[in-house]
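Methods: example folding runs. The two proteins below were folded one after another, and each record is reproduced exactly as written to the output file, sequence line first and structure-token line second.
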Amino acid sequence: MAEKLEMMSSNIIQENIDYIASKFPNALKEVMENGKLVKKIDFDVLKQELSTVVIDDKQERYQMTWPDKKKSILLANSRINATLRPIKEKSVDFENTQNLYIEGDNLDVLKLLRETYLGKVKMIYIDPPYNTGNDFVYEDDFSQTADEYLENSGQFDQQGNRLFQNTDSNGRFHTDWLNMMYPRLKIAKDLLKDDGVIFISIDDNELDNMKKISDEIFGASNFVVNIIWQKKFSPQNDATYFSNMHDYILCYAKNKKKNKVDQGWDRILLKRDQMPSNYSNPDNDPRGPWTSGDFTAEGPTPNCIYEIVSPTGKVHNPPKGKRWVYNKDNFKKLFEDNKFWFGKDGNSYPRIKRFWSEVQQGMVPNSMWFFEEVGHTQEGKQETNKLVGSGVFDYPKPVRLIKRILEISTKDNDLILDFFSGSASTAHAVMKLNSEEENGNRKFIMVQLPEECPISSDAYKAGYKNICDIGEERIRRAGRKIKEEAGVLGQNLDIGFRVLKLDSSNMNDVYYNPNSITQDLLGTTIDNVKIDRTPLDLLFQVMLELGIELSAKIEEKELLGKKYFVVNENDIVACFDDGINDELVKELAKIKSIYAVFKDSAFTTDSANINCEQIFKSISPSTTIKVI
């Protein structure tokens, strides 16, 4: 019989247990839970295995903790029955684009992405809520019935969880923010490539806490820099204490490159706009333009004090109290290599030549970013106003700021993730930078909670029901503008994006809880797919489970009256129509895909299912058959 897909997010806990058991089999134990034998890890044994001394759990140690920290760790590892449903009508160039825009709570979305995008993201940028008292909405840990949903005026997610605003009157003000951020960052680390990097915008409200939890998740040794961004160009004279002119951007590598042979992340040098004006080539040196530098240094080093005779015969000694930079032997080698300049007349004081071709072709980025270089908050607001309407979004980041981050951390075909997408400045910056480079083909994944716009807001009056509407429209308009401005270079520019929406699983509850099948249902054919779900919905959930990227090329075809899909030419062939016959199976087997997927209920009998397997074994034995 064909193997049945689970159609759930990956079981990260079981994967971790299996990994630990492979390294420390003596730490594995089996216990009975609800009448079933379950594998567990004996943490006392594991802790002792990882220590050279006797472990005393009562010993005090330095650590970062807060109420419910353990729950937030469990939350990161827990499984969910959810999926991502495509919305073609909101997408741009759905069939060809490699970019994604995902509507939904980012924790659940990250869990769904974890298996497929594990270790594939080069750079993550997030601009999370700064926790100023009213700037973030979080999911309360309980669900409501349909009646309660209608009775209350609050916001809810797709699973019926009520969303609350974290105000400073909340007694768990910092705790709730930490519990919101910790599991998201924990999963985000899994998505980063081994040479990946994350940049996190934050201000003074939670800088200290953000630094501590990031040290714990990414490792303090992988902290790279705390960038100071000058976000304002003029001071506020009515400020209570100080005029706050800056924000922070914390940078952590997945693995920091500590030397030239390491495989970890290393920053990319910033491009120089042009060769400095002080470089020239007055002696027509074949090595090209050069500038001259002082050949003297401080300090009494006897072997660096000697006479230098210029080509005209003039003798030079180092000034009083100084020496030459190199000893006599090294000077001789450089002199013979025409590395010294004695002026046009040949009598001037010796200066060493430094060639432009030998200079590091780029600038090391600084930790202070001024608004003249990367923009300010007002610039970000003006950009957004021009594209989607005046006053529809507060405090968007300027494109130049995100572009600077992209320039020092990504290139070519790298994948960028932003799971607090907001106004989608990151997507805008990705397209903009791609348009400025000959081979720029970076791809983005934007994730945003569809938080509703208040009816009285400028955004709602402009026709935007939620923040996702704003972000999506910004990408559409920015993409068109960038491609138009790029001219010939923009012909192949990817300005499209597939819109996906977080939703409950496509499968009915009976799929996960076979014990709920009643006597009345026995003997009847049970369709385990929800009635409002399309074949394309099913395909995307299958792609998630099988680890196929959600930007993969999808071809929709028809054969013998049945609709089927081909993903990435031969990664998946899937048919979710009923009444599958041998003739159709034979034709699909000829594609010789890695996976073939059908609905379990499409086979009316076990013999039909077996026939399908036998046909594939005959025509395409390497194909793995799955059913949902």
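Second run, written to the same file directly after the first:
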Amino acid sequence: MARLRAGQAIIEGLLAESVEYIFGLVGTTTNSIVTELPGRTDIKFLDTRHEEGAAFMAYGYARASGKPAACVTTSGPGSINLLTGISLAYKGRAPVIVIGGDTAQEYIYRDGAQAFDLVNLFKPVTKLSLEVNQTERIPEMIQYAFRHALSGKQGPVFLDIPRDLIDGQTIEANIQAPESYRAVNGRVEGDAQAIQQAVELLRSAKRPVLLAGGGVVDSEASDDAVELAELLDMTLVPSYGHNDAIPNSHRLYIGPPGGRGSGEAAIAINQADVILALGTRINQGSTSWNYNVVNRETKIIQVDIDSQEIGRNYPVAVGMVGDAKAVAQQLLRALREEFPEGRPNPEWRASTESLAQQRRTRLDAEKDITGDPMMPQRVYPELSKVLPPDCMVTLDAGVSAGLAYDRLAFEMPRTMFNYAGQGGLGMGLCVGLGTKLGRPDRPAISIQGDGGFLYTSQELNTAVRWSIPLVSIVLNNRCHGAEKAQQQRLFAGKYIGVNLESPRFDKLAEVYGAKGYYVERPEDIADTVRDALAQNGPSVIEIPIEEYFPPAAPLPGSSR
């Protein structure tokens, strides 16, 4: 057991969990932590220009790498500024450990400077939020934080540490290996009886659909999901926002569901007699929780690591708490015993392939759309020509970026990143930077509108200082598109606060020291993106586009 400075013990506790980056800003209450980092190469303090950017980057890093990230911020507004980004980590199942340096204990409950109840502020957006109450307990509390963040459905944890517990303090610290205080690489299998019930349903299914959720990505179960689908000719549909759960080029893939997705996927879901919802809570974006999408007669087999999600949004025929990969392998073993060569379902397979072709025909027709400025749909076939299969794509909130859901193909897990039901504009740039830090071996782009980009564009400075080669594509329609569409449809075109005037984003990039591009013709997009991907630092591509408000997707109707 070594005698360590309190700040040093915090750093060593993070290192024990292989934390590579600490994202944040310096502050008087955390200097005892961050000043332990100069000269170290095994862990880095990545300083951002705003705490929100730090939280978004930590989310992107954790989701791309599959490893935990950390944020360190100071008291009061310094930590409060993290809330938007940490709420994304909570919605998006990202293990981010937040260490908030707080005011000294003597100022708490006395309305001291920058004294707020941070623990309760963070409770709704974290798996666990607590205050360290003794210096000696710092290593224990860090272990406690990681145990919660990395167990079950992963997510962020907030640790509040008053400055008087770390400033000038030393402790006897026993920094332990993770396997000594939490389960490492454990996979929860499904109940054997439930597995048999699921097999019986799948065996008799005539129109089966496999809905692959975020749990498939988290547990690295994409190959297992594909094997299951191929065994029974199940239609492959990712849950909303998780297009990368299954390879989009597969013959059984029919597109993503939801209002920004494929109408063909909604038809398949509606026609299904059995849905295997693997690693998904069946989120709102997938079905709008509407029985015009999921037929009332459909039998649902739901698998999720969180018991609270089973049957939460739809009644289930079979519910299983378990890891998506472990349960998928159980199902595969049981089904192969009965069908060693698989059970062909030619009629349903033909229906699936017909719908998939219908989708391809619909999207191919968009290549002929003309306009000056160009219509946003024209951007995506050009991007598809140049983006490599392992390219990580971060999609900001907003109408123009949202068109990517049905128009870009994802072939590998951990290549699609979005706002995960949290909906916060401005996450695109920062999350994209985080993904590139998490997987520097992969190319990375972010796609956002002009409104979203200016939420966090100051982090271009962070990208330049840290030489992070992210390609940021700004689709500039000169408005807040989703809100303008709503004001047009529901409020008789009484526009307020939706029309925007922005700087030239390519010029803004150059001011920050990044590479800037301005593209007005569809035929120039692929070469420009190719050049940007070859840069050693960050770049911004501005593409002026026409306003486009997608029509509301019709629901498929509840009758078969």
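Comment on the second run: Residues 141 and 254 are 46 Å apart (CA to CA).
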